[in-house]
Amino acid sequence: MLLQRWKKGQRHLDTFWKSWRDDYLLSLRERTAYKLKEGRIQHRMKPQVGDVVLIKDDLPRGSWKVGRLCELTVSQDGEIRSGKVLLPTKRTLNRPLNLLYPIECSNRTESGNSEQTAENQRTESTGTKNPLENSSVTSTDRPVQDGRPKRRAAEKAIVKIRDWLDT
């Protein structure tokens, strides 16, 4: 009986990971490719230091590494060509932009107060007050990416990912 429950749990886990790899990561990659301006890979939103990205590798998409941009390399013509990515293991990798796929947890807001939002999120994750539990938080107070308000679950996931990357 215990073995059957374990096998059922493993099947559910495999289904989740397959869905993650096949649906979410593929759509994230396609969405990034859809927003390209030119033939070479270039996202319409310029990458910024602190963005969380997936790093393309010769592995299945579900096994790609996650990191945070810690430095951007600008070429002589003023274009951003590559970036240094800080991994959770504190290792840094130098990768071209076409191998980096931004994840939907940006500090950018419509008003452009990314520093203020980043500071607020640091306070939220370390302080005792959690505004995600406060029902008075409106969609105008939340960070907005591509003009859409974020779901509460997405905001909680962002906080967890940032905590994970900060440790």
UniProtKB/TrEMBL annotation:
Residues 106-156 are annotated as: Disordered. It comes from Crassostrea virginica (Eastern oyster). Residues 4-100 form the DUF5641 domain. Residues 143-156 have a biased composition (Basic and acidic residues). The gene is LOC111124050. Pfam families: DUF5641. This is Uncharacterized protein LOC111124050. It comes from the Eukaryota. Residues 106-142 have a biased composition (Polar residues).
